[in-house]
Each structure stands twice: as structure tokens, then as C-alpha cells.
Amino acid sequence: MNRAVSLALWIGTFTGVGLCLGAALAHAAGLGASARIASLGVVALLLTPPLRLAVTAAAFWREGGRRYAAAAGVVLLALAIAAARALTR
Amino acid sequence: MTAIALALIGVSAGLLGSLMGVGGGVIVVPALSELYGVPFREAVAVSLVVIIANSSASSAAYVQRGASDLRIGVVLELATVTGAILGSSVAGLAPVRTLKLLFAAVAIYSAVSLWLRRHQASEAQVAGAYEVRGWGPGLAVSTAAGALSGLLGVGGGVFKMPAMTLAMGVPFKVAAATSNFMIGVTAAAGAYVYWGRGEVNAELAAPVVVGTFVGARLGSSLLERLPARRLQVAFAGILAFLGGRMAWNVLGGPG
Fold first, then answer.
1. Domain ranges, ordered by start, for chain B
2. Is B226 in CB contact (< 8 Å) with chain A?
3. Domain assignment of residue A74, given as a range
4. Contact B155, B189 (CB under 8 A)
5. How far apart are CA B43 and CA A25, in angstroms?
6. Number of domains in chain A
7. Residue B56 and residue A48: Cβ atoms within 8 Å?
8. To the nearest whole number, what is the mean pLDDT of chain B?
9. Which tens digits make up the pLDDT trace of B136-195?
């Protein structure tokens, strides 16, 4: 379980930080795309916790920790509702 | 404000996070709002994004080593996420003056907490080798820590740590790793609410995120070589200064 959760966190982090670095470099070079790249980087970072929760819930479920899987699932649902409300405002 | 100045704020926050086990928010928010005049709620939103990056990177390493207690983490996240959604919703309505005073109090509390922790021995432990108790106080403090995270853009680790170690009987190192594991999810819940209000400035956040990542990597590689206790005292002084300056400005001082 630890390996899968850790991998999800690394994927989200490297994608988000990489895009943020790209945005900072594009901004320094005066490229107009910097704002869009920065937004993509921030979105990647904002999606990392739900990705980690989904992987954690699935891993607990597979290992028989149903109550912990349910807890992770409820947190994931709360995040999904908060994100949906943010997108529809 | 140049991208280099923003990245340097991030480096400081990353160093603080990795060396002291404190979320970088207590540095990012006052640095952006008090030193560079960024609107307070926008500074909080940037800080939440930075906290997600910092927490994800450091907890990836902790989880890989088995240092985080994922069972405690997912249960307490129920409380921190509830608190964060409430806190960030209230932050949209509360006067900035009140938020700044609350932030100043949290920064000064964090400074005192760091100062007191400078002699604390931290035993090496792995997750699971202990009996967890005191779920009630743990959940209550986690809800409050989540609310502060949403209100002020801080990680809330300085509140969760004593709750986990003292009330729940979790060893110090496991509590630190588990707190780190939870902080990203808590910050995301708050960040979504700020995003919905249009207060997440991605161009401002990007260089701070990069700086934080570099600072965190630098901090963890220098951890054994740096005089950690002296740094802890220095960071406590910086936090007390930033918190004091924010309170002074709100209460009518110049600036």
C-alpha cells in the first residue's frame, strides 16, 4: 500500500511542480503562455490529494481494511463536492 | 515583486517545513501580505497551494519509508477536511483585520511551540508499534486545526502534533509524518473554496511552489549537517517577528 500511495504523491508533485517551473521560466522569458501553464500546474497540485485519497481507499479495500477505505472514500467525496461547488460558482 | 523574490519566500517556507516539521504557511502568508502587499485572502490561497506541494513531496518520502500511520491519517482527515471547508467558507465573510489578528496569534503560538521543542528528543518509531487512544480529543483538535488551515492558510501541524503525541499516544516521529500526510488533503479542501471565490492567483503561486520544493529538498539533504536547534530558535524568532508585525499593523502601528 505504501508504495502505491507514495507513487501517486510523487506523480502529482512532479507534474504540478514541473508545470509551475515551466510557468516561472515562461514568465521570465516573457512568453504569454505563462499564466496558462501556471494554472495547469496549480490544478495538477490541487488534484494530487484526491488522487492520493483514491489510491489509499483502493489499497485499504484490497487489504480488507473496509472501515479505513470508507473513511478515505468519505473524505474523497467531500473534496469532490467542494471542487464541484468551486467549479460551478 | 519579482519571481526571484517569490521563489525565495518559497525556499524559506520549504526549509522551515523540512527542518522544523512546520507547514510553510506561517512564512508564506505574512511574507506575501505584509512584505509585498498581496491581499490577505490571496496570500492565504497561495499558501494553501504551496502547502499541498510541500506536503505531497515530503509525505511521499515518509509513506515510502512506512513512517506515516495511514489508518490514523484517513480517520483524522474526516475532521480536518470538515474544519477546512468550514474555515475557508468563513474566511470569505470574516473581516481581514480579524483574520490577520488570528494569524498573528497562530504565528506567535508557532514560535513559542518551536522554541519549546528545541530540546525535545524524538525517538525513531515506525507506524503501528503502539496503541492509539484518545480519538475524541484527536478528532476535536483536528477539526480546529482544519478550520485554522482554511481560515489562515497554515498547515495546522503545530496543533495536531500535541494532540497526537499527548492525547492519542502516537510517537513523535510517526505523528510528524502522519500530520504531514494529512496536511495536503486539508489544504486542498480549503483551496477549492478559495478557487471558487476566484482568489487563487496561479501566476503568483507558481514561483513560490518551485521555491518551496527546492527549499524542502535542500532542507532534507542538509538535515544532518545543519545546527537544527539553533535554526529552530532562529525560525522561532522570525515567526514571532512576522506575527508581531502583523498584529502591530492591524492594531494601528505604522505601515
1. 3-250
2. no
3. 2-88
4. no
5. 22
6. 1
7. yes
8. 85
9. 999 999 999 999 999 999 888 878 887 888 888 888 778 888 888 899 999 999 999 999
Distance from CA of A47 to the nearest CA of B (A): 8
Q: Read off the amino acid at residue B21.
A: G
CA geometry: angle B42, A75, B187, nearest 5 deg: 20
Considering only the beta carbons, identify the residue of B74, B188, B206 that sits closest to A24: B206
CA-nearest residue to B206 within chain A is A20
Look up residue A43 and give its three cell numbers. Answer: 490544478
As a whole number of angstroms, the distance between CA B10 and CA A59 comes to 33
B234 in reach of chain A (CB within 8 A): no
Q: Is the ipTM of this complex over 0.85?
A: yes
* The three grid cell numbers given for residue B190, joined into one nine-digit string: 480549503
Q: Is the pLDDT of residue A62 over 90?
A: yes
Rg, Å, chain A Cα set? 16
The predicted-structure confidence for B80-135, as pLDDT tens digits, reads as follows: 999 999 999 999 999 999 999 998 898 888 888 777 765 554 454 566 667 888 89
* pLDDT over threshold 70, residue B253: no
Structure confidence at residue B255 (pLDDT)? 45
Number of other residues whose CB lies within 10 A of the CB of residue A60: 23
Is the Cβ–Cβ distance between B39 and B127 less than 8 Å?
A: no
